[in-house]
Specification:
Length: about 220
């Protein structure tokens, strides 16, 4: 059963869920509006430029979770999904997932964004297997720390290889979809790399490697 692996942000959804979550927390006055917004924008720009300090980013992303009760967090996640994420979900992305399932492929998502943010999104997309940074929970509350491998850049390859050790799958016939220069290591590893609405660096790299470039967005949502 070949793997069909998808990046999430700006691939299956039309936006970045991590940055959007930060904006959402600001709008709810759950973080310091000025300093948090500046840092949130800064890490997002680092990611787009391919120079993200992943440890600092994850510490920043996790810190607010430790200040929110589990009940309140559940309510926030539901509102975030309804108001922010649902409009971002790309019908053509859902269609591509369905196509791979019809072919008999095993569909999964791998993302650099925290599992507490992306878990509900993967569920909404109908994808059960998600590899993402794991926000640590102790005694029913988030601690503000992250467990395990950060799934960014080479970290996506390392985390996927660790996951494969306990699975009946390998990378034979595998496909990976991504928009980002940060994902060149995993795109280079699979049999069928697919660049989805790629950034400029990935688009140029795809040209040199003869990788396919596609769009999963409608014309009104921006060019490929």
């Amino acid at each position: 059963m070949p793997l069909a692996i998808f990046d999430l942000d700006d691939t299956l959804i039309a936006g970045d869920s991590d940055h959007a979550w930060g904006q959402f927390l600001v709008s709810k006055h759950l973080v310091d509006e000025k300093t948090f917004k500046v840092q949130n924008d800064h890490f997002f720009q680092q990611y787009q430029q391919g120079v993200l300090d992943v440890d600092a980013y994850l510490a920043f992303s996790c810190a607010p979770l430790a200040q929110i009760s589990p009940v309140a967090l559940d309510q926030l996640q539901a509102e975030f999904m309804r108001a922010v994420i649902a409009p971002m979900i790309l019908p053509l992305g859902l269609a591509r997932i369905a196509q791979h399932r019809k072919q008999g492929d095993f569909v999964m998502i791998i993302t650099a964004t925290l599992d507490v943010i992306t878990g509900p999104i993967a569920h909404a997309l109908g994808v059960e297997t998600l590899l993402a940074p794991v926000a640590e929970i102790k005694e029913g509350r988030y601690t503000g720390a992250v467990k395990g491998i950060a799934t960014l850049g080479q970290g996506k390859v390392d985390r996927l290889n660790l996951w494969l050790k306990d699975q009946p799958y390998d990378l034979s016939g595998s496909t990976f979809y991504s928009d980002s220069r940060n994902d060149i290591p995993l795109l280079s590893l699979v049999d069928y790399p697919v660049c989805v609405d790629p950034d400029d660096v990935l688009r140029a790299h795809a040209r040199t490697q003869d990788w396919p470039v596609i769009s999963l967005r409608e014309p009104s949502q921006g060019p490929a």
